[in-house]
Design a protein that fits this description.
homotetramer; Chorismate synthase, AroC fold; five-stranded antiparallel β-sheet
């Protein structure tokens, strides 16, 4: 299905080469100031053609609000948003008529639907995420205005280049700071290494994976559910629904599973507003419910499947051959993935907040 | 909420110290042979008191089917199941009246509900998972009979002891093989190291974390959805909803994100029944949809929060003190978590299969 | 599916001749006083064997709360409830082995599931409604305590015997008053006529239909949704999900559709707490949202399908013959349907209230 | 919420005076031929300005498919549709700034959202139904191609003018026949009486209600669910979600509730393809599941609330006064409601069909 959320529900439509992409956002609280100017910045952070590190495909990605607001104020009714597809070149990928791209969705879509969408990969295209980012921007504005909630994502690794001491950044890092680096990794030295790694992949007509880390600050305690809808479960669901993701961890993650309870437990101390934890290995969530500490998590993105480098592989017809993908594509998705991760995080928090507030 | 799934829907109830725990399972296909004997084995693999490595709390965990079958055959109507709580000792944990256990749900439940459930942690208790395992056993039987689907989980790490060459095991490993090891890690040498690590934690009145890896064999291709409900997204949701989980990865996971596309892509070759992939870094899922290869993933479990070792922490009242948790608790949950992981995997696959088949 | 509601979600299980029937109720607010004593009265109003007008099948229908409360107070966790089936006589209906009962679910269940449940009609049995009534009783208690909401149903027709001036009763009628009449029609003369009509049907081994009218008093304004989930739409859904129902109308209903707007519109006047309507043809709902007036509606129940009188009909095998149904059955369901209608109304209101309140 | 359906899910957006209205339709089967030409006819049957009997507001209501098809064939991905609002005159209804229209949603929206949408009534506008009709047209095409399912609605009453012998029409009536009458009541004499009644209301600046009857032919048996999601329950939900509806009945409806079982039961006979019923008081549904007979039902629509005739009523401020609504409005909605009823019926059947088929 193409909806996310039950109370704050986002439904998206659109493929790579159709007329427009967009979404309908339900249950945006009434009385919120929202215009296109609130949404465009995150779309622009997501859009292709931002730097040498991303695909040259040039899309303006201008959002147009269709409904749900009057004079820039939300009515409580669904917000329809449309973003026209401007740069459609459906014939670039001609070799794909013969070959399913390895590790792409070409074959599985065909197996599932029995219909082969035109070049571009259909719904598995990264353009599907535009509606998510637009919807997330609305959620973010509300969350910030109502609670001061801040959501900041950043690139924490590219290939084997890892940002160290990630948790030190969580208290104060801002998007402005993150955007000072073309990689969106907020450390000069590491960012430069990542840039070189991405440009190397680009030069090789290859690609490279990486990770995005994200922090949610100022989320109230009590968000989440005890059983199947734990906060971390919905975050994991949200993040693994982003194209090209392979892994998710909250708080101390896989690494934390190596420690004994006596070292891993977040003991309590009295703070100004109540009990706080001394450490935050839990990543702000205990028993599926937020405890008021920073919620932070990491998402793994594989290297993009579409590469220009020749791959020995079989065609749809089962004939062994060689595929060199043409067309424009990103050598590494993580810089552009940052606003998508933020958007999905905002949707998850918004869902719980609406349930919590009514 | 306490439901998982839309078409194959499982709804659970029950806390640690109530009359019974149980579940209602909707949309079990009619005409399936199901009796308690199909369900009890997985409950017995999950139950406490199996070995020195688990809690001494003794629960028979006998399932009783209430509805939905006649003469051992499913009717297509909801299957109600009840498992009585036999060993209730609500007064063991008396110190918890004063202290929220660090990294447990005691405080967040109180923040959310404003009601403090009696000792035992209420719905965050591991007994909540009994209903899941019972429901999963029904799904598994159907999946095996209809498609030959096999789901096998095993312990892949305890603390810093990691099982090597995990992917080599995926083709043939069976539950019978797994259960020959008290740790459920199917390698004699590694299992012994893990046993020592768990017993060390137990001796220290401490606890230790670990990981469970799980493979789903023979799942048909075409299961999954393109966008928000990708197969890996629902698996991640399912797994992170299990108590004490911190991380999820599918296929090559976080490690795979370090590789370039030219190495990570799973190129195609012609097989007997159609295209297959040469490698399986994708973990059997591409673009959110199964491709017919083994689906495999890893789940991280933190060390149990409840430990006998003294912890310097604050009481509910905000007074600094020392908590030594009494009562019975597991030093390490991963051996008992194996059937829970399998059950959740079965539910996810069943959901897609029912949608796929109607 | 066997769930009703999204936020206040009730999931039921159980057929006529299984071990027990029951339900799981999710999202009951924490801190509510609930014991079996709050639930049993409505179950007893629903149960068979109350008077000469109902089936002689004797079921105690004793509810046992399994979870979700401690010391009689709700925890916020799911409430599991079990009601044992005590009086099982699966062999009474032997002729049904050959004949699908006309206008019963025997044939459609077989067409849908391909499995014939034993005598008793399986999930189409009226015993399926027990879980609904138990869940509704919890909702009602909360709604009354939190808002003073009162829900009162009564029989407004049996066959061609109709209660006149129904709207006059809506302001003050109570369940105690309703229960003074064996028919649950709160008018001595009309009730007596109804009694005669039902006894006539019983004497003839025939059956008779009727209607139940229900009023919800003191519901706050603002409950409901603009579009697909209008308050009247969910009420209609809820009521038409009760076995044997054929029709639903809110406020002035079908009759009101004959009038011009100038007569039908509910004009406003200033009241103590804000604008109120002079008339209430709307039945307390405008544009899908409650306006604070009494919400009232009527539900039509057909005559029970199972009758002792001979029916010329075809067997499963397609052979024309004669069916005389044996076993115990109600000549008229409306007296016993009253608490079921009330329960479904309570669930609908509770759903909106939880969404409204958070 | 603004979604209808779980498997065949339609999500709509749009108010009276926003940029566009539209919808996203999920789970349209792949490989279906769909272009705007399949959708426009039903939109044109719904649109204003068709005859003297409807509002003069002139809207072209041209649908534009945004996504989900390529070369006129569905891909299996969501179909986005946009219909621009062309004739926006937000200042016509100026008196409404002071007065909530009696029996309209003006007051309840304000109570719910605390925001007053501009003149036109916001989401309660009939323009909200455009997305429904567009989505229904897609469902209808599939249902007809796959099963030969035909859905035909018609006007069965206006005010006190009722069409007689409605059930005689159910076997063969077509939309072409219905559209030969400006009232969409397929009987010359009755239609003329209705026309006079509507023109009388128009001349009086008043309005009048009526009913729409609808038949679904060739639906396969086995559609529906036993308990909360009975076929008639979802139909009732769907119909009562249409603006201005007050009542729903299936098959023999309220009238049938007056008859004894011996007369009302639909006895079986052997037909060509299996058992059929001799009569069809059940309206094609037994125990919530279709039995293969015609599914038919009736929906009641009240007289439109917005009338030019003076109404003595209170203003928002609580001051007694007189409201004469200006602007264009329908004196009677039932002729234009016919395609809306058909669309909602198609959505309900499609939901079950997709579940049934997978």
């Amino acid at each position: 299905m193409s909806s996310f959320g039950t109370l704050f529900k986002v439904t998206t439509y659109g493929e790579s080469h159709c007329k427009s992409v967009g979404c309908i956002v339900e249950n945006v609280p009434p009385g919120l100031d929202i215009t296109e100017a609130d949404i465009q910045p995150q779309l622009s952070r997501r859009r292709p053609g931002q730097s040498d590190l991303t695909t040259a495909r040039d899309e303006k990605d201008r959002v147009e609000i269709q409904s749900g607001t009057e004079f820039g104020v939300t009515l409580g009714t669904p917000i329809g948003m449309v973003i026209k597809n401007q740069d459609q070149r459906p014939h670039d990928y001609s070799e794909m008529d013969d070959y399913p791209r390895p590790s792409h969705a070409d074959l599985t879509y065909l197996l599932k639907y029995g219909v082969k969408a035109s070049s571009g990969g259909g719904r598995s295209s990264a353009r599907e995420t535009i509606g998510r980012v637009a919807a997330g921007a609305i959620a973010e504005k509300y969350l910030y205005q109502a609670f001061g909630i801040e959501i900041v994502g950043f690139v924490s690794s590219v290939g084997t280049v890892h940002l160290e001491n990630v948790t030190d950044l969580l208290n104060t890092l801002s998007r402005v700071q993150v955007d000072q680096y073309p990689t969106r990794c907020p450390d000069t030295c590491t960012s430069e290494k990542m840039t070189r790694r991405i440009l190397e992949a680009k030069a090789n007509q290859d690609s490279i994976g990486g990770t995005v880390t994200c922090v949610i600050r100022n989320a109230p305690s009590g968000l989440g559910e005890p059983c199947f809808d734990k906060l971390e479960a919905k975050l994991a669901h949200a993040m693994l629904s982003i194209p090209a993701t392979k892994a998710f961890e909250i708080g101390s993650g896989f690494g934390g599973c190596q420690f004994p309870g006596s070292q891993h437990n977040d003991v309590y101390q009295m703070g100004e507003k109540g009990l706080t934890t001394f450490t935050n290995n839990s990543g702000g969530v205990q028993g599926g419910i937020s405890n008021g500490e920073h919620i932070y998590f990491k998402v793994g993105f594989k290297s993009p499947a579409t590469i220009g480098l020749a791959q020995k592989t079989a065609s749809y017809a089962g004939v062994q051959g060689e595929l060199k993908a043409k067309g424009r594509h990103d050598p590494c998705v993580v810089p552009r993935a940052v606003p998508i991760v933020e958007a999905m995080a905002a949707m998850v928090i918004m869902e719980y907040v609406i349930f919590w507030l009514g």
